[in-house]
Specification:
- The structure is a single chain.
- With 79 residues, the chain is an alpha+beta fold.
- The chain has one domain.
- The protein is built from two helices and five strands.
- A five-stranded mixed β-sheet has the order 3-4-1-2-5.
Amino acid sequence: MLRGNQMFDEIIVYEGVAERTGNTVDRKTVRGSEAVCRSMTELVRKARRMGDGYFYLSIPAWPEGQTKVELSTAWVPMS
């Protein structure tokens, strides 16, 4: 559930890597957008489905101390 005064970080996803742009927007700015994510799991899911682009992630959901987050990892074969 989204709260009335909730703030979101603008995230750019390019080639499977998510990075904060430094812009912060409020809930009414992104209301109704498909690019709004409440968690990192939701961001990964939407980035896979929608591809590269801009997303809006709830501020507390971004991992603390991280500047970039790799959203996709290469498969490791089990021989």
